[in-house]
Write a structure and sequence with these properties.
mainly alpha
Length: about 80
């Protein structure tokens, strides 16, 4: 799903690569903790591959929009959209 072309979609590349790493890391932690049941989480969270793709698409769109209108990235918005929703 993630290849070199995907990692070069958004500039600045270092922030984009860090964002993708963070989203993929969150996905792997949530996915791995599911197998422990109530010990891992008291509520079962669904963060499947579709959610991972939607999170990366939102991050890409948000970072491209902020760059095109020359405004700072809204990290709290990204954190809320990926982590809370």
């Amino acid at each position: 799903m993630i290849n070199s072309d995907f990692l070069e979609r958004v500039e600045p590349y270092e922030k984009w690569k860090n964002m993708i790493f963070m989203i993929c890391y969150l996905h792997s932690v949530v996915w791995e903790r599911r197998k422990y049941g109530a010990i891992g989480f008291c509520v079962a969270y669904e963060f499947n591959t579709c959610d991972l793709e939607a999170s990366m698409l939102f991050a890409e769109n948000h970072m491209n929009l902020c760059q095109s209108v020359n405004v700072p990235y809204q990290w709290r918005a990204l954190q809320y959209m990926v982590g809370e929703i």
